[in-house]
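Closing statement on the adenosine-5'-diphosphate sub-project.
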Amino acid sequence: MKWLKNSLKILAMIITILACVSASAAETQAKQVVRVAFPESKGLCETYADGTRGGAVYEWLLEIAKYTNWEYEFVEDDLMEAIRGISAGKYDLMGAILKIPGFGENLYYPDYLIGFNNSLLIYNKDDYSIKSFDVKSIDGKTIGVFKNAAAKLKRLHNVLDFNNVACKFKYYSETDDFEQALNKHEVDLLLVNDTYKNVSDYNVALRFDAEPCYIVAQKADPVICAQLNDAIKKIYEANPNFGETSFRKYFPVNYHNAANISQEELDFIKRSQPFKVAVIEDNYPFYFREGKKSVGIVPDILSLISAQTGAEFEYVTAASYKDSIEMVKIGKADVLGYFANEDNAVGAEGIDITKNYMTLNSTVMRNKYAAFYDNRSVAAVINGSTASRNIKHGSVVYFDTYEECLKAVDEGKADYTRLPVAVLEHLYMRDYYTNITPVVDSPKVYLALGVNADRDTQLYSILTKGLVNLTDEQTSKILSNNTLMSGKKEMSFRALVYSNPVTFSLIIIVFIILAATLVFMYFWFKMKNQVIYFKMKRVENLSKVRSEFLSRMSHEIRTPLNAIIGLANLMRLSGDGDPVTQKNISKIDSSAKFLLSIVNDILDMSKIESGKIQLESRPFSVENLLEQLRNIFQVMAEERNINLQFKGYFTHKNFVGDELRLKQILINLLSNAHKFTETKGEITVTVLESAVSENSSALRFSVCDTGIGIPEADLERIFGSFEQVFRKSRSNQQGTGLGLAISRNLVELMGGILSVRSEVAKGSEFFFTIELPVYQGQLEESLKNNEVAGKYHVLQGKNVLLAEDNDLNAEIAATMLEMQGVKVERVVNGQQAVDRFKETLPGTYDLILMDLQMPIKDGLEAAVEIRALERADARGIPIIAMTANTMQEDREKALSAGMNCFIPKPFDVEQLYQSIEKFLN
Ligand code: ADP
């Protein structure tokens, strides 16, 4: 049972506690609802769009509620309706009411007012006859008054009487008319409250006694009246400034007196303006340019001073803060745009500093890793300014701009700097600083104007008069306009990178990939080029080896061929042997010549392929060329009963070109025509000249036959190396298949194209056109006509020194020459030739025939030595080279060694005689 008792006790306790809690809850909810008339009135009773409220009266009501436990029920009503309503018991409270006699019978005025209402006499800004510091200046003027403002008017009368001033009055009952009275110049002055909304548009001539205003209650409810009075009393006891503070919050001083510029000062302004203002170039937010317009805090302040004083200003820019001070000191400027300091007491030497016109918040930025508030710390300060005395520091470094100061701190050159917040914001937008951090510290920076201390004091007084009359509202508007606006949005590259890290990372990655690709490609191509270079080198070496081989081989083959052809010639010329022997000798001769032509062709083709053929440019006669061809082919044609014709249609006869190669082409074509034309056929060689310009002509060469023709399918193929048309009937046809290939290449080198037209069984035409310069000079007779009379009587009795190491060749040459009555002396090498020549008397030999390739001393060396000898005939004696090396370069070497001419081996008897005769003549 005992436990039951205990349990009941506990239960009873819980119930008791719960009851107490709910009772106290009910007590807190018991708020008294008070009805408040809330007539909209700027600064006093304000209701905002979102339903919230404000105003000095509202703040008072909130404070009162804290002492009374009231809960308000606000009712927006017209002012007069509200007063009537409270008298009739419709509302409990309303505010702010002046004490109007005979007005408040039903209203309860507490013992304590809630604020003051100043009265102002305002006048138009352009009315210079009124001076705010001289009450007498309103004597005789007309004052506009609102009819109901009896209390205000009474006080005005008191003030005017006291100052012994008489004015006229004009009364208005309509608000609109009253407000327009000054603008329409119906009155000189208007009597208003300092809460009048347009007050800042006018100048204030007089400000006088305040009118107290009250929050009133309905007399019928004494409890509320007592509570109200008690609450206001307690509020003042707690904070005597409550009324003043709450009123100033909504009614800042936003009216000003006109600057009273004296006549003397006006004259000074007229005389000296525009005043030059020293500012720092591009110095946001103090001074910067928007297009051509000067903007910023300084221009805005000065334009207000201009409006007050009529003075005009223009701007001269300095590179730094210090320079701007300097400009004023040395008289380059009249006014210092801004003097910035932590406290106004500190001035600059030689400069008179005016009253502050603006206060800026500043902040201290310090290097994250540096010591701060320390006797060792280094302050960065702009040149011309001083370091803050409130921050401990050991030394100071000076910079021209705030930006440089901030950079110095960021880079660790200084430990901290102090600068206006607005400037910092701007710098932060422009650039990115990694190593700085703000210090929570908000000392102010004061801005003032400055003038040269030694100059006319009038400017100082004018500026001061202008500054004194600036209102807080005006300056704070200028500050916010110049600092809250975005300013200049230009960003440094660094800031751009830091604010777009992803984009810039991507750009860098892409850039690196591109660069890597380029580097890779560069090395790849370089490697490829190297490979190509080595391949080319190899090919070059191969072709060198090949051409050396060919040259050696041709020499080796030509030497025995020389012997065969020479011996055959000798035997033929001797006339020995029966006709059968002679016929065999002829066959040996023609076979050897054919073999020689094959060797020549192979050599030519290899030269063409290795690009070693060089054309000569020498004057020659076309007529002569045709004549030579006729000589070669006429006999052959006659033997086979072929009609060989040469047709020349040309106006010029002499041209410049490679006659030998041209002859080689035509011989090729003509021998083909002979080979493939039957007996009784016809072969026609045509040369047609057509003028291209004054100095050159196009020559068309054509070799036409009535032979077997070429099938169409083979027309292109036959120009290839070793290509022939397969013909069953002519299986024993002689030829290598190189002739046309060589000819086509040579024609191409001459700038033409060798073409063919052909029809099987009807004939073929091979033709080409080349352009050659016309030779204007005269050709030597010997060049013109190489054909020399059959008998070489000039040779008779001449002495020839023959240098030849090969016995057989020497024998052939000697025999050939001796047949023409030449006396031959033979030596076996170059050295012997030189020695022999030296030993003999000048004039012993008429000519030297010199082989080029000889042991001990070759022909070239020997020729050089002979030509260098000191004797009468050393220079003049003809030296003729004989060699199986017939390449162009061999020919050139012989000529440059001082030899006169070059006879290729194996030599043609006729050619040998002709060459010798030419020089013995
Ligand atoms: P080759 O005459 O030494 O065989 P070419 O290169 O001079 O070599 O000629 C190649 C081939 O072209 C000849 O074998 C021949 O079949 C053909 N050909 C050349 N000229 C004529 C021509 N005038 N008439 C018929 N066939 C020709």
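The pocket of adenosine-5'-diphosphate is lined by residues 668, 672-673, 676, 705, 707-710, 718, 723-725, 735-741, 764 (CB under 6 Å). With this model delivered, the sub-project is considered complete and its resources will be redirected to Aim 3.
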